[in-house]
Amino acid sequence: MKTNHVSRWLLATALGTLAIAPAHAQTTDAQTTTDTAEQAGSSTPGSAARERFDGTADAGDSDIVVTGSRGSANGVTNSTPGGGLMSVQTGTKLRSTITRDYIDVQAGTTNSFTLIRNLPGVVLGSGDPFGSAPNLTIRGLSQTSLGFNFEGMPIGDQLSYSAFPSEWSDTENVGQLNLTRGSTDITAPVYNSVGALLQSELIMPPKNPGAFASVSVGNYGLRRYFLRLETGEIGNTGIRGFVSGSRTYSEAWRGPGVSYRNHIDSKFVKEFANGDTISLVATYNESNSTAGARNPTLAQYAQFGKDFAWNAEYVPGSNTNNEFYRLRANDRQSLSVSMPSTFTLTDNLDVVVTPYYLYTHGVTNGASNLNLGGAFFGNEPTGPLVAPRAVINPNGAATMMNVDYYDQHTYGQNSYLRWNVGLAQFRLGYWYSNFTHTELSAYQPVSAEGTVRDTFGKTGSVTLQDGRILRNFAARIEQNVNGVYADMTTKLADDKLLINFGFKFVWVDRTATSELPGNPRVDSLSAKPLPQASIRYSFDDRNQVFADITTAFRAPSAVSSYINIYNVATGVPSSTPAASFEPEYSVGQEIGFRHHGDLVHFTIAAFNYDLTDRLVQGTQLVGGTNVGFAVNVGDQSARGVEAEIGLVPYKGFSPYVSGQYLKAETKDNYPTRGVFLPTAGKRAALSPEWVASAGLRYDDGKLFALVEGSYVSSQYSTFMNDQELPSYHVINGSLGYRFDTIGFIKKPQFTLNMTNLTDEKQLVGIQGVTPNALPTRSTDGSMLIPASNPTYTIGGGFGITASLSAAF
């Protein structure tokens, strides 16, 4: 989809909102809140009554409007404890809310994952200096056990459960982030989020027209431009909105290559006098990169360090041309649209409706050498291949770009009724989602100049004699999700006791087909009941205890779980569909205490997880392309304690400290090659025992500064615990100044952001988990299972970004 087409589409949707909104039975009259109140965040009329029983609607859940306050042009109030990381929470669940106080002092290149890096239990390893490519785990659980919502819609890949936070929104438009660990709100359109649910909300459009702009430059050639236009209230319609756009360019910090990102955000809101709202949110993102990181084994990192990168030059006829960086193209476009709306039906009954649509397509390409004398199409021999522009190397093979093209469409809706009856609130809802995923491989011949005809593989690819494109996999997967849910919340003992319990039942139906010979049709149905309950008791306005129990499940992820992926040289599958589609099922519990004082705020909580048929996501190299796969490692348990403490800003200073202790253990032996590895009792991979973060913020309304650091202890990268990622630490900093208004330039701000201040040379993430890094005897002694080396993420070097921003 071209950018100009998307721009026209966004304009059309905005105009559509203007046209349909006035048709509502009521119109907006006098405003119920002032702009000053909105700058600090204010709920829509009637929301307090609606949320009185909501076990997850904590204080600070209001919409954020960023028309400027306390000398800031973009929403800083300098009132949130912990420098913007510890909003006051009063619900039944363990949640953190990050506000503009923290978000605004971060670089525009950051994303939602980077913004939560200091919260308890969060482990974030970034492979570049600007935080655009992070690896995320929470409480030892990877993205596949986490839920992600953006403006009411489930965001990310619905098959692999992977999220792409750089696509959601620009940082300047993020109003707040909510991270709920453990039990999540039953109305959220997710079913796999036993670890946590991350919810991102855009700022509310201001009532007055205006604009906001930012320009950033940095090392490694970083250049970024951002502009937001705000309509203000349009006439007396009650409609207001904004549209923004940004462009980012940077060079690879190690090795060759460059990256581009173009992004559009838009949000329009229609408010009614009775508190009803209609919102229309649309975001578009396109990214293109030849700066893909090469992930080393421990041995490769010890030998080459950060210089372990793809080759910068293409040498005609070389057998190693498959390591040329331009062949590792990554090109991706995405469109996300949602319309979260609330309508009053009676005095005590309303309905919340959120239809949504997601579209993504792109390529994640690799490279290999291919023998043109013959290959296999599925399990059938091809004879000689047709390969225009191919150059034969000394080894008799031709260098190919391995194309991995994918196309995804998701449409769905999530709706629920909310009924207040006496001391109780009832919610009854239905969630439906349809998702189609098409993924095709192809081989693009590389010319003597190192170029290919089409990185998407649609023209000029290697074909059979009959014209069919040679592929080692071809998949079409359709998924239908149906979920019904209900819950009840009641407040007792003068509202000191809040109790919530609910039940959700979700069906996930998947069908997979392939055009390649030898691939059977695969049908799978996963359905699980998901009960949950939570409670909170307030001793007084400052001290509370809370507890919850939750359940979640997920079906096997990755294309390789549903179709054969072939070795084109032999016709033998490199991976085959899962023998069993038993979903992972998890039960989690939490109990905690929180205190909100005049100066000090702190929370401490203990948690426990039990996971059955634990699915671990990994990658393997198949014909030069990284292919994801899911592995059932049996049962796993995890328990730990987390805590955070922060201060209300005092004389400009606002510190924050968080930490977590985690013990995660594998309960079963790992099946492989018809035998078992002795993994029972081993520590679970991706589960560091200790995680800690600390930060100190100073802000006097003009001058502001922030220094923050994190520590992650060692973590195993194999199921056998015979190799580990060493402990690491990262220190980041920000410094800036807010100037007075100069004519029409309102509250200009200069910000200097620095990442990895000490320029640590270290590994910061596990890219590919393996069963064993050393040859290991099976449990029955019958087989010596060969070693397979894990791969790792090299931490980004020192990065610096200077930004100048202002409102107009």
Automatic annotation (TrEMBL):
Question: Quick one: signal sequence residues?
Answer: 1-25
Q: Where in the cell is it found?
A: Cell outer membrane
The way it spans or sits in the membrane comes to:
Multi-pass membrane protein
Limits of the TonB-dependent receptor plug domain: 94-185
Q: Keywords in alphabetical order, please.
A: Cell outer membrane, Ion transport, Iron, Iron transport, Membrane, Signal, TonB box, Transmembrane, Transmembrane beta strand, Transport
Compositionally biased, Low complexity: which spans? 26-40
**Ribonucleoprotein keyword on record:** no
What region holds the TonB-dependent receptor-like beta-barrel domain?
Answer: 287-757
- Any single Gene Ontology cellular-component annotation: cell outer membrane
Composition bias type Polar residues, residue spans: 69-80
Q: Where is this region: Disordered?
A: 26-88
Q: Name one GO molecular function term.
A: siderophore uptake transmembrane transporter activity
User: Which family, according to UniProt?
Assistant: Belongs to the TonB-dependent receptor family.
Provide the protein name.
Vitamin B12 transporter BtuB
The organism is Sphingomonas jeddahensis
